[in-house]
Amino acid sequence: MKVILVDSNLGLVRLWRQRFKDYKHVTVYSCSFISLDSHLQQTTRTSAVVSPGNSFGWLGGGFDLALKKYFGGSSFEQFFRDKLGQLYKPVGAATVVDLGKWQRGTFRYIVHVPTIVAPSRPFYVEERPVETGYNLVFNVTWNALMSLPEDVDTLVIPGLGTGYVGVPEEVSSKSMEFAIRLFFARDTISIELMNAVIQQFLGYRFDGFISRKCLDECTVVGIDHKALLTYNVCNDPISNLLPSDSLLGRTTDAYQVER
């Protein structure tokens, strides 16, 4: 499975390219969603795309408007909202919509993961970057990845929270990088350690949830457990939370993840 990051925001694209340099699972494009179609036709069998808009499924602005235009306009928007039950979906909650007759190109699914309830006011608060920025973008990215149907080989994700929601590009790109790298590393570490690094990234330090076995595993996979326990997302690199590069992509016998 691979991830394609696409946006016309050049500052965000530059940060993505820095963060995912030489990372085999991610390709970055600086273009519109519609322009991306020709690239996917050549390399992809079944794609999904993230709809990062509002909690009610309206496709009226930003990346969602591009989805609306690409898949069929107002009639498609009505279909999409009907598939969501026209119900409120909490921010960060992932709902997979099978496009059925609305499939186009390689796209079979849209993953609806709201980043805002409604575009009435920005969500990000500069004085509270963890709760209103890092947590928001990580949860949206992680839930989108974890909800994917098994037949998807490519997930397209735009910039998350960087439009009306107001999340700074640096905050959004760091959160997306952590979620994506952890997703592809999840078969390399135990579920317990995976939960521990998520807990620390989100700023919820609680040592009672981190066992001695978990700290021992840190040594095995190349994570400094002291750096883990004192992690501050605003200041520290995400490399402090992830297994060493030499272990990524393979699973040790000692910490085989059960699925």
TrEMBL record:
Residue ranges of domain Macro in the record: 1-202
InterPro entries for this protein: Macro-like_dom, Macro_dom, Macro_dom-like
Official protein name in the record: LADA_0G10572g1_1
Domain of life: Eukaryota
Pfam family, one: Macro_2
